[in-house]
Amino acid sequence: MTINGGTKRIRAIGLMSGTSLDGVDAAWIETDGERISGFGPAATLLYEEGLRADLRRILDLAPTLASDDPFLRDVEERLTRDHALAVAMMGQTADIIGFHGQTILHSPTQRRTWQIGDAALLSRLTRLPVVYDFRSDDVKAGGEGAPLVPVFHAALAREMEKPLLIVNIGGVANATWLGPDGEVLACDTGPGNGPLDDLAQVHLGQPYDKDGALAGSGQVDLSRLDALLAHPFFARPAPKSLDRLSFSGLIAEATEGLAAPDAAATLAAFICTAIAQAPWPTPPKQVLVTGGGRHNSTLMKGLAERFSVSVRPVEDVGWNGDALEAQCFAFLAVRSLRGLPLSLPTTTGVAAPQKGGRLYGTIL
Ligand SMILES: Nc1ncnc2c1ncn2[C@@H]1O[C@H](COP(=O)(O)OP(=O)(O)OP(=O)(O)O)[C@@H](O)[C@H]1O
Ligand SMILES: CC(=O)N[C@H]1[C@@H]2OC[C@@H](O2)[C@@H](O)[C@@H]1O[C@H](C)C(=O)O
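That is the input. Now the predicted structure with adenosine-5'-triphosphate docked in place:
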């Protein structure tokens, strides 16, 4: 493998710990950073309850937390050790790891985006070089720092009919619109499963609303839905991005006093309407859905009602919706090594195509 001049077929493991805080996804691909020449195993390592709760606490503390805070350092080490376990679960060697880490704060207007995770420790534990810190160069250059998955979506869908809309419903929801002339437009669309998970935790004592049963049994409160959609974020043009907690105050207010099923139904309608009303140049010919939200039938039904074209899970075109983001960070690690851009003016609002990522260790 050589990186500059004659680069070909690098074996990369991507690791993504998403805003749902449920665990780390790992996936192996072979790529030159432009095309994907092979897909390998994928795995998810679920965090134990204590780590999940500590990560959730850190999201609230992050705005005032010092980077050397002992609690933060302890959580970061436990998180990193779980990432090393996820690499071991792959059972397949690689040339490089793409390590996203866990976003604990995202505020591009303050030029801040913060992913925790110890690249040096991960590299020591796995004995592999690690690319990390994918978002900060974009934010420093005036971009949103997110979403970063669009260039990967574009590579995956290279041969597919356009315009195509790819929607990810994770803790936060984001979408990529791929146009017939190679256009790649993207933004975070609004909340994803995050607020539904919070509600399920309180009312069901479960980490999420399984299959959307709670939301499916309630009535949408239309005036509260309008109040949610009146947030200025929705009038902003793409590109734009969100923090996991961007709407938490507004959502608490808008769901106050509602019965749990009605609150869940209203939140599901909020998530789906925000996705469907995101501004794209022309309507897509089809919508593909990835991320954990594709398992929520109330969300899938809500999307199908709001688009006039087919809305299908990405498995229908042979992709793995549980592995896509991890595959993305494997792909972006290789792009980083090759000095290729990770983001574009049309995906993060950065002024020019932007490189990113830092390397810990040496590529042989
Ligand atoms: N069977 C199911 N029914 C309903 N919801 C589900 C189901 N399975 C997963 N989910 C939802 O998917 C979420 C996890 O989604 P995912 O792994 O895509 O999030 P993430 O990668 O952490 O988030 P992000 O993309 O924002 O970083 C869970 O928290 C839950 O809300
Ligand atoms: C700051 C941050 O971590 N954002 C995540 C989050 O989860 C979904 C959405 O919000 C997206 O913007 C991003 O993740 C994906 C992988 C991305 O960058 O494309």
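The domain at 150-317 is CATH 3.30.420.40 (Nucleotidyltransferase; domain 5).
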